[in-house]
Amino acid sequence: MEPIEKIFKPKSYNLQGYQGLSEYQLTEHYTLYLGYVNKYNEILTRLKNTDFAAANQTYSDLRALKIGENFALNGIKLHEAYFENLCPQQFVSGKILEMTTNTFGSYENFKYQFSQCGIAARGWTILSYDLEQRKLLINCLDAHDQGYLVNSYPLLVMDVYEHAYLIDYGVKRAIYIEAFFQNIAWNIVNLRLEQALAINK
Fold first, then answer.
1. For residue 2, pLDDT beyond 70
2. Which of 29, 157, 184, 198 is the most exposed place for a label (fewest CB within 10 A)?
3. Where do the H-state alpha helices sit in the chain?
4. Alpha carbon 163 to chain centroid, angstroms
5. Model pTM?
6. What is the per-residue burial (b if ≥16 Cβ within 10 Å, else e) of 94-113?
7. The domain at 95-199 falls in which architecture?
8. How far from the centroid of its chain's Cα atoms is residue 82's Cα?
């Protein structure tokens, strides 16, 4: 096979100083993210020499690569959003506090619903701004490429795959979710919300 081109470059994140999320856990999680980047680059390299004329919906190299491309790229984007919205010792404030309170009745009720969706989901839980309905929604994803709401803007992204917490908490997902809430970069969430609202102006 031809050498894999490093077309897509991984991002770097601070993996130290979090409450309830160990550096070892986050480093192993980041290593998984690097795997998605490597596979995405492999897919892009192989697509350059794929026979598009041989496309087939039952099986073809093109189908396999394009399905894999969706999975790998979403895996990259979701993990980047997750690591980006982690930050130790921030308190919720600003527009996101106002909108979660208005939408869910209180911030505490939003946290409860988001957390319980984290228990229900198999892969990801996302607080999104629906650009058409112009409101906040909580999405449950069972995989990187399954369940995401079209035409919505991700604001807060939580990974609930076991790899996100198994080292620190075993199978105790609820404790991990509580730790996640102690490490949210609300300034990033507010920035994303500002960007989402600007689209609809």
1. no
2. 198
3. 23-47, 61-84, 95-104, 107-120, 166-169, 173-181, 186-199
4. 13
5. 0.94
6. eebbebbeeebeeeeebbeb
7. 3-Layer(bab) Sandwich (3.55)
8. 5
